[in-house]
Amino acid sequence: MLTKGVCLRFYKRKDIQDAILEHARNKEVSVMYGLGKFGKRPDILMYPRDVLEMVMKGATSFHSSEEIWENPLNLNSDLNRKDLDSLRQGWDLVLDIDCKFIDYSKISADLIIKFLRYCEVKDISIKFSGNKGFHIGVPFESFPNKLGNLNVKDLFPEAPRKIAAYIKENIKLELSRRILEFENGSFTQVKDKVELPQEDIIRYVLNEFGDRIARLDVDKFLEIDTVLIAPRHLYRMPYSLHEKSGLASFPIDPDTVLNFKKPMADPDKLIVPKIKFIDRENVTPESSRRLLVQAWDYEVKVTEDYKAEKETQYEEIEITCPITEDFFPPCIKRILQGLDDGKKRAIFILSNFLGKIGWSKKEIEDYLLKWNREKNKDPLRDNYIKSQMRFFKPGEKLPPNCDNEAYYKSMGICNPDALCGRLKNPVNYTLLRWRSHLKVREEQEKEDAKALKKEEREKAKEEKINKKIEEDKEAKSILSNS
Length: 482
Prior knowledge:
Layout: H1 4-11, H2 14-23, E1 27-32, H3 48-56, E2 61-69, H4 81-87, E3 88-91, E4 93-99, H5 102-118, E5 125-128, E6 134-138, E7 146-147, E8 150-151, H6 158-182, H7 187-194, H8 198-201, E9 202-206, E10 212-216, E11 222-224, E12 234-236, E13 251-252, H9 289-297, H10 304-315, H11 330-336, H12 343-356, H13 361-375, H14 382-389, H15 408-411, H16 426-481
Antiparallel strand pairs: 1-2, 2-3, 2-12, 4-6, 4-11, 5-6, 5-13, 7-8, 9-10
């Protein structure tokens, strides 16, 4: 537990006050007085001495909003979504990684940093949370201002929540492998450290030979926060002490997270590093665009039931040849008539749609080039389509979901029929109709086969009767001649 003496020694430092104040700029701030006792909201920090004055009144830690506000003091609990959007200038992406065993948190943080870099994000920072986990931050300035026709500043909490879920989905297999590797393949070691029954941390999958293979399931003991990302959600500020551990939350080098040790966060020994958590200086503009776009479009498998449903939906159908236009949904057929606006978004939709229904890369490219030249009044350059197809992999991802506001409705191509309302993605529409077609064809083939067998049985019966008649005639003939 923190004592007032420890808090005063730490927070009276000028370098600590300056660092807290810098991070609090345009953020809503709230102070914690011991365990679970928050001060008034909204609040702000304006001067370095504000920090010490609050500590002298019993403050133990400082917490700030993920959102950036024009004036945080204008916030109140009665504001609706529209009011909050008008006050919000932006939001920072803050991912909260938490596990009972900090070495697992370090592995998770390292993987997330690597994945963000894979997504071309440049401005990544990380800090120790003060207890068992880490916070990874990406400044709002690295995101684009617009996503289609949407203002990115207004996509809170949806955008950071989707990004968090997208990251979690993409690293989970490698995260399981890395943690098991850390424990030399021992599920028992993991079970003992996270204090959970073995059945909670193991799931089974079938390999190519049909054998059940044990896999580590990290969801029950390691959180990458996708739930608490909500309007006016607060997180522990850098250089804020933690009430339970007595340690300081402070920034660390993203490249050395695996080397972190808790004694580094001792408030009496902490040296303020040059690196910052969510550094707004020298931000690479729009380096997080790819991450945002891909996360916004991603079909996240949020539950095991939904996962099983998706696997059944896509694995039961073997597509041996490209599914034709007869089975396309209304929005895709509308695109194929030609567009005045949104042609680049249409290329993105069509390429991923066709790739999911059995079309090859060459077939897709030829189809898009022909559609663009013949149907669009002001066609895109061929080179644009060819450049988009250069690294395209058919079937790798779904087109945007039907409820994605940056696409179908804003493009004016959403004209749903009765089937559309039951589905989330244009691919589902085509696969459902294709499955129905296959079922009808299969039933017809069964009927044809039954009819053929019946015909063969009747023919065989008739042949048997005719043979018996001939045998009887032959027998009578023999008797009469004898």
